[in-house]
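Tutorial handout. Part one gives the primary structure; part two gives the three-dimensional structure as tokens.
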Amino acid sequence: MPTNTHNSYVVGYEDGAFKPENNMTRAEAAAIFARNIAERKGENISSRKSSFKDVSSKDWFNNYIAYLEKYKVISGYDDKTFKPDEHITRAEFVTMCMRFYALDAKTVAAKKNILMMYQNHIEARLYLQRCWYGLDKRIQRQHI
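Part two.
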């Protein structure tokens, strides 16, 4: 039996449904990564304003996105938007994963060359296009 426990990173909707066949949004992915990082660091996700112009302080995902900005796990688009309601692609999700793992010193040491070569979305996408079919495909909630 495992002795380690952790909080839930992926949660359902307000109506109690999980909807595994739904495509995951960028906001939902941000929430997953933020919850995971906060637990690993023993931190609370405090109330703060995201810098993205399309993320309101009243949005349910604002604190998660602001928290990830703090750790540079997300950077958004050139027009200073995050597009939280857009469906996240595999390439975008992998980019967030790589930045997430960069926060862990053990992982950085183990994956130093990959992280140095593929730090941003464009570089990750070019690399992964050779390795993984369908990077522009969306991720469903059941895949996480």
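Part three, for discussion. DSSP finds six helices and no strands in the chain. The mean pLDDT is 80.
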